[in-house]
Amino acid sequence: MPSKVLPNTPAAQPQHFLPAAFIGTAALFILLEGLGIQGLWMASLKALPIAILGAIALRQLRGPTRALTLAALAFSALGDVLLEMDFPNQFIAGLGAFLLAQLIYAGNFLRSADFRNRRSLLRAVPVLVAAFLLARLILPASADLAPAVLLYLLAIVVMALGAAAHRGDSALLFGGAVTFMVSDTLIALNRFIAPIPLADTAIMLTYYSAQFFILYGIRRTQA
């Protein structure tokens, strides 16, 4: 008869260590960024929490869902690095990486979506209304970047709608998708409309939370 793995044995420790490492590294980056610390190494630190989520996904997910989640996290980490660096068209490059991440997430969620129920409709309507209002506010102010911003907005809305209609226990997954929309809304408002106090802290806090909720939401739907 197989022996039971106790909570404090070495075999069980990674299950607790990786989430703690994610929280610790995310908090460290947010703190250092808030203090104005700069340097190329900060780009690596920014992506490290997402890499840790990738390690969790590798352990706890399975099948095509695991492959797609890892791909979305990889492009998210790439976007983190690009947005932290300083080079021409840096914002477009970072936006492109996150666009691919959103499209992969969307494809992943739509594989298990069912729009033919009341729950999906109740979740989808606020997402569509918020996206419409955001588009009316942001697109005129984004000038030459309007096509790229619109494309990204459409991608994240499809991602959120896929999470909204996901079968099973998808409340945490949908919460993560909405939190991702909040994070990107803060970026857009801060960049195109007016500076937001403590914008970087709010953006990164909602961004890391969104990725964490999405991963564990996916895991819950697979349970």
TrEMBL record:
Keywords for the protein's UniProt record, in alphabetical order: Membrane, Transmembrane, Transmembrane helix
Transmembrane segments: 20-43, 89-109, 121-139, 145-164, 171-189, 201-218
Topology in the lipid bilayer: Multi-pass membrane protein
Coiled-coil region list: none
Protein's name in the database: Lysoplasmalogenase
Family affiliation: Belongs to the TMEM86 family.
Record has Transmembrane helix as a keyword: yes
Keyword flag Transmembrane: yes
Location(s), subcellular: Membrane
InterPro entries registered for this protein in UniProt: TMEM86B-like (IPR012506)
Organism: Microbulbifer spongiae
